[in-house]
């Protein structure tokens, strides 16, 4: 039974993740791309630690940090998915009328969760293990032990979460509406704690070295963490091999025993009540005389409808909001707390053109892509069918989407302007040029994102949540965007090196480049707007 | 009023979903569009509404070509889709207000129409709620109300009776008759042969995208009295070739 369940769940998960062969390829390319970047980053990180702390201490620090961070993150981040998985997922109802034991269902669901977390951890740990292999040449058994430890990391945090949730759900009667509310509250608190921690570190420690010194003090001394034991295994494996193996095996045995007990307990206490699914409230009463209609122009009405769609889909909106408004706020706070500001200002004064180019690159990576625009058509799903029947021109539909996405990003541009003016001490002309460029960059970003959404409608977003999780479209767009940022910076640096390093020249060059991209994008969109809706309707099939 | 002339549509490399179909719906007529599953009914309706582009042939709505005069043609069209999951994040009244703006309907007239239709369908109480909180039938009702706001010359309904309660079915049939009697054309697809028998002035049966029967209901009824029921006629016409062999 468990095998059948797992096979079925894997198939459903795989097919919902990979909608087509094309989307599979792009996801693979995306993973390889980001994994390569991470690989390079880890190499630098390890070299930095080796330079500062030496061999075994650095390794212990990295491994223990990874172990601690991954355990804590899994504990925090898997809480809501487990609630959803056992109580609110759409597939759960389809299992409950079948003769399946609670225990089998729990094992299968946990297996899927563990598998996805294991694959993620494996990706995170692989570069570290790779460098350990290159530097220390540990015996072959080391790799098997490390994989076993990685596979065991998700067990205890997830089991604890599962038991807390199952017990909690027996006590609290929670429907889908309440769950959605708590989920938002939970996300908000996690974000606040994350921000508070970041600020604490920024305020407390001026140099990264200090942070690592502090961490080395605390983390390398935790001798009984499995990674510490492993590191000992690398350096002193000939002396304490038996003792080390016993400790590691004990860790594995304790974890799996804990899992077994959790499954047995979970099977006893797990109850699913379909009435906890979304409950319909009674309709708010509308007075016979209270029908108030407004009269607006077509485009105006379309824009208002776009805004309503955005604000009433908080997950999507929060994603856009975090991307746009929170980041400049974060930058401003970092500048307020950073005591190295004078150094940065000095660098800018001496390298104005280079700073300007880097600032443009930063702008493209932040406001030059737009999560609201990238999902402008996808999030409509069924609504497209109705819109295509209404006497609305495709141009107006496009215009409303472009304006909506652009307007949302305007406070961000102003916030960045304030940040540059207040902290970076740049000349007013440079600030003005950057403002013009930002307006163009954000419009360009909106257009590119809309085109992306139209050209690749194959990347279906069957659920808005998936946008938040970062699906194929977002992954592939990030790849394209990061390459675009690199290219723009490279072109700017090349121009400044070989043509002119004058700030005005570089700015005019960028403005011309952006105007060119804008005109091409607009021309492309307007030329194709007749076939846009039909193409999208073909791909976004009606969701029943 | 609605003139379909030799239309053809195929998807990718598959055989024609609609093959050289010609229909004419005159003012004052209710036209029943019948056929087995996958016969091409919904594709034809999507071609009429402009959702799909034609491979060949022409469709005119109140003399406006859907391909050449798209916006004007759509202004004369009211459409009720088979699946009612649209604009779920809007309130019922907001959806109707949106349609009012799109069709540029005067406020007073629109208010009056909404009140009349919402009262008929017992939807007045729910207009201020989000469409996502509506039941399947209520969603369908709000779409029906929306499709009639601008008093369209051609009213196209794709399987409108599915999911409606008996009261709503009765009201919808009455509305279709009233709308046709005002000199407009009504075309609807259905699998309910009894409803088609009672409501339609004309019926057409299609199979594999090809018209296999086209007749005035009076004639069909006359024929049925002496020979077969509409159900039997439908079964006979849509029987699989394999079965016949």
From TrEMBL, chain A:
Keywords: Membrane, Transmembrane, Transmembrane helix. The chain crosses the membrane at residues 24-42, 62-89, 110-134, 140-164, 185-202, 243-271, 316-336, 356-377, 398-421, 433-461, 473-496, 502-526. This is Uncharacterized protein.
UniProtKB/TrEMBL annotation, chain B:
GO terms for molecular function: ATP binding; ATP hydrolysis activity. It comes from the Bacteria. Transmembrane segments: none annotated. Keywords: ATP-binding, Nucleotide-binding, Transport. Residues 2-233 form the ABC transporter domain. Coiled coil: none annotated. Pfam families: ABC_tran. InterPro entries: AAA+_ATPase, ABC_transporter-like_ATP-bd, ABC_transporter-like_CS, ABC_Transporter_VariousFunc, P-loop_NTPase. This is ABC transporter domain-containing protein.
């Amino acid at each position: 039974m468990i095998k059948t369940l797992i096979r079925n769940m894997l198939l459903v998960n795989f097919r919902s993740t990979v909608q087509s062969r094309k989307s599979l390829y792009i996801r693979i390319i995306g993973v390889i791309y980001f994994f390569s970047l991470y690989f390079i980053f880890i190499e630098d990180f390890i070299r930095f630690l080796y330079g500062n702390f030496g061999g075994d201490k650095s390794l212990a620090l990295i491994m223990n940090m990874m172990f601690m961070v991954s355990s804590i993150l899994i504990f925090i981040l898997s809480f809501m998915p487990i609630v959803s998985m056992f109580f609110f997922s759409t597939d759960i109802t389809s299992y409950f009328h079948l003769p399946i034991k609670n225990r089998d269902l729990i094992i299968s669901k946990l297996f899927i969760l563990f598998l996805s977390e294991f694959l993620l951890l494996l990706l995170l740990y692989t570069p570290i293990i790779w460098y350990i292999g290159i530097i220390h040449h540990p015996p072959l058994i080391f790799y098997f032990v490390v994989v076993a430890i990685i596979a065991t990391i998700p067990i205890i945090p997830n089991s604890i979460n599962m038991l807390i949730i199952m017990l909690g759900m027996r006590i609290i009667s929670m429907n889908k509406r309440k769950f959605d509310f708590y989920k938002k509250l939970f996300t908000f608190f996690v974000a606040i704690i994350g921000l508070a921690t970041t600020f604490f570190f920024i305020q407390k420690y001026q140099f990264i070295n200090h942070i690592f010194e502090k961490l080395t003090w605390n983390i390398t001394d935790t001798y009984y963490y499995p990674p510490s034991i492993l590191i000992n295994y690398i350096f002193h494996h000939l002396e304490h091999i038996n003792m080390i193996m016993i400790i590691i095996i004990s860790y594995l045995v304790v974890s799996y025993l804990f899992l077994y007990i959790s499954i047995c307990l979970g099977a006893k206490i797990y109850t699913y009540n379909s009435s906890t699914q979304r409950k319909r409230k009674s309709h708010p009463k509308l007075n016979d005389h209270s029908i108030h209609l407004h009269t607006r122009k077509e485009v105006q009405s379309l824009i208002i409808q776009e805004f309503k769609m955005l604000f009433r889909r908080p997950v999507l909106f929060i994603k856009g909001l975090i991307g746009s408004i929170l980041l400049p706020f974060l930058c401003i706070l970092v500048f307020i707390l950073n005591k190295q500001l004078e150094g940065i200002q000095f660098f800018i004064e001496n390298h104005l053109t280079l700073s300007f180019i880097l600032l443009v690159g930063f702008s493209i990576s932040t406001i030059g892509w737009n999560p609201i625009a990238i999902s402008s058509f996808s999030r409509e799903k069924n609504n497209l069918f109705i819109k295509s029947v209404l006497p609305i021109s495709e141009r107006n539909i496009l215009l409303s989407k472009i304006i909506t996405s652009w307007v949302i990003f305007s406070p961000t541009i102003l916030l960045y302007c304030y940040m540059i003016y207040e902290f970076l001490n740049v000349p007013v002309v440079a600030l003005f040029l950057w403002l013009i460029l930002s307006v163009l960059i954000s419009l360009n970003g909106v257009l590119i994102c809309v085109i992306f959404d139209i050209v690749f409608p194959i990347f279906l977003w069957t659920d808005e949540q998936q946008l938040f999780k970062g699906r194929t479209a977002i992954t592939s767009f990030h790849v394209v965007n990061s390459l675009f940022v690199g290219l723009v910076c490279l072109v700017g640096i090349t121009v400044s090196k070989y043509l002119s390093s004058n700030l005005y020249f570089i700015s005019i060059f960028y403005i011309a480049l952006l105007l060119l991209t804008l005109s091409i994008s607009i021309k492309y969109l307007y030329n194709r707007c007749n076939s846009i809706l039909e193409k999208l309707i073909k791909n976004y099939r009606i969701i029943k | 009023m609605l003139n379909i002339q030799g239309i053809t549509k195929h998807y990718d490399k598959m055989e024609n979903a609609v093959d050289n179909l010609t229909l004419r719906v005159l003012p004052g007529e209710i036209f029943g569009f019948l056929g087995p599953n996958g016969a091409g009914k919904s594709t034809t309706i999507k071609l009429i509404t402009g959702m799909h582009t034609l491979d060949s042939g022409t469709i005119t709505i109140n003399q406006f070509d859907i391909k050449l005069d798209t916006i004007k043609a759509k202004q004369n069209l009211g459409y009720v889709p088979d699946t009612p999951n649209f604009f779920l994040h809007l309130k019922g009244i907001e959806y109707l207000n949106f349609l009012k703006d799109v069709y540029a309907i005067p406020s007073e007239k629109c208010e009056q129409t909404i009140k009349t239709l919402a009262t008929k369908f017992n939807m007045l109480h729910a207009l201020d709620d989000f469409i996502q909180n509506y039941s399947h039938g209520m969603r369908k009702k709000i779409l029906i109300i929306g499709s009639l706001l601008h008093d369209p010359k051609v009213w196209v309904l794709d399987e409108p009776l599915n999911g409606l309660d008996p009261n709503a079915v009765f009201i919808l049939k009455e509305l279709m008759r009233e709308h046709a009697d005002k000199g407009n054309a009504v075309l609807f697809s259905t699998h309910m042969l009894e409803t088609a028998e009672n409501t339609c002035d004309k019926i057409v049966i299609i199979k594999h995208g090809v018209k296999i029967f086209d007749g005035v209901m009076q004639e069909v009824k006359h024929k049925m009295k002496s020979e077969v029921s509409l159900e039997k006629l439908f079964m006979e016409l849509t029987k699989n070739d394999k079965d016949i062999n």
